[in-house]
Amino acid sequence: MVGQEPVVRTLLNALITGRIAHAYLFCGPRGTGKTSTGRILAKAVNCLDNREGEPCNSCNICQAVNEGRALDLVEIDGASNRGIEEIRDLKEKINFAPNTARYKVYIIDEVHMLTEPAFNALLKTLEEPPPHAIFILATTESHKIPLTIASRCQRFDFRRLSQSAITSKLRDICEKEGIRADAQALVLIARMATGSLRDAENLLEQLVLHYGLDVTVDHATEELGLTSDHRVRELAHHIASKDIAAGLALISAVSTDGIDLRQFNHALVEYLRNLLMVRAGAQDAGDFAAEASAEINELAGNLSLAGLAKAIRLFAQIDFRADPHSTLLMELALVDCALNMEMAGTETKKPPTRPRTVSVEPEPVCEPACAVSKTAEAPDIQAPPQSQPAQVVREIQRIREQWSGFVDACRGIGSSGKLDALLRGACEPLSLEGDTLVLGFYWEFQRGKVESPEYRSLMEKKLQDVFGVPYHVRCVLAPKNKNVKSNTHASNPVVSEALRMGARIIEEEE
Ligand SMILES: [Zn+2]
Q1: How far is the CA of 253 from the centre of ligand 1 (A)?
Q2: Which of 130, 188, 341, 467 is 20 to 30 A (C-alpha) from 196?
Q3: What does the alpha-carbon distance between residue 201 and residue 88 come to, in Å, rounded to a whole number?
Q4: Domains (range + CATH), the chain
Q5: Is 0.85 topped by the overall pTM?
Q6: Residues whose Cβ atom is located within 5 A of ion ligand 1
C-alpha cells in the first residue's frame, strides 16, 4: 500500500493482536487504494502462513484472492447493484460457514449508492454479524452513509496521495515492467492524477499502449492533452476576471477539440489549487516551473482566498460520470463561481449603511392574504409588484410555494436531461402577466438557455402537468443584489418590524 501508512499500521496491529472488527468503513477519494486494501485484508485474515500480520501471497488462499477466484471473498459494486436483491442474497448466504477460509469477507464498493431498503437490510446483518463474517464498506462519499451503519463500523480515512508518492510508485512499476520513462514524464502523470494512484497507473498504461516501452515527456504531454495547459491557465484568468463569455467559449472550444473534459477539469482544479497554496502562503510560487511562477504569483495576487476556495469546490465537485462529454456542468460551475467570486481587496467592501428606500417582499411561505396585509401595515415600505389583483397574488404565491418541487420534477428533462440544474437556485417566479409566468433569472447564462424554444416549451408542458394551468413562460434577467445585507434593519424600525413579520429585503437604494 502506497501513501496510506496510518491505515496500514492500524490494520497490521489489529491483525497481529487478533483484534479484527466485523465491519470496516473505508472512506476516501477514488483511486486511493480502498478496495485493494480490502483485498489485502481478506488475504491477511485468511492467510495460512501469515507473518506479522502480512499475507504470504503464496498459500492457496492468498493465490485464490490474487487470481480473483476466492469463494470466500465477495465483492459487490454498490454503484451498479443498488438494489435490495444483492443484499438479500448476501443476508441469506451469510450464515453459511466459509467454503475454505476462516473468514468470509464482503467488500461493498461505493456503498453510499445503495438504496434505502438495501441499507436497511445491510443494517440488520451488521447488527448481528455471524462470527465468520467481515464487512468492508468502501465509499468516496462518507457523509451519505447512514449513521446507523457507520456507527457499527471501524472507520479508516484514506488520503489523497502526494505527487511524490505517486511518482515513486510509478517509478517502481516502470522498473518492474521494463518501461523506460523520463523522470519528468512521470511527474506529469502524477500531476494529472491528482492524488489517485489508480488514475496514474491507468495513464501510464495508456501511454505504453500508444508509444511502447519508451515514455518521454513529449509523449506524456501529447497523450495527456497537456498541450491544453495554456488553456487551463487562460480559463483561470477568465474566472478571475469574471469574463463569463470568454470562459464559456473556451470550454466549448476545448470540448470541440476532443480534449477529455474530465482531465481538463482535473488540470484546472490542480492549477487553482496551486494558486490557493501560493495565495495562502503555504507554498512559494518559486516551487513551480520558472515561466509559470510569475503568472501564478500575479493571478494568486488578484484573487481572494474565499474566491479561490469557492472556485476549487465548484469545479472539483463536478461528476462527469453521468455524461463525460457534456460541457454543461463545467459551464454552470464557471458561471456560478465568476458571479460569486470576490476579488482580492473587495472582500472588506461594506454595503451602504443607511439606505434611503427599501423594497421589501413577503416571504413566499406566507399565506397570501396575510402577506398583503403585512406589507400594507408597514407604511414606509414600497409595495412589492403585488399591486396586482388578489386573485393573481394568490396564484403566483402558489407557484412560489411549490417551485422547488416543480424544479425537482424537471429532472431528466431536455436533451441534456438537466433542465432542473438550469433552474435550481438560478431563478424565481416573479409575476403573472395574464397567462404568462415571468421568471426572474439571476444570471444571463441560465436565462438564455431556458428562454430557448426547446427548453421553454418543455417548461410550459411541465407547468401544465404540475400546476394544471397552460402557462406561457417569459424569462427575464433579475440579478440578485449581492450587496444587500440585512444589518439595515437594525437602524430602521419599520424595516425591522416588516422583517419580523416574515418579509425579506430584496433591494436597497442609496
Ligand atoms: Zn497466504
Answers
A1: 53
A2: 341
A3: 35
A4: 5-157 (3.40.50.300), 163-224 (1.10.8.60), 228-340 (1.20.272.10), 357-506 (3.30.300.180)
A5: no
A6: 47, 55-56, 59, 62
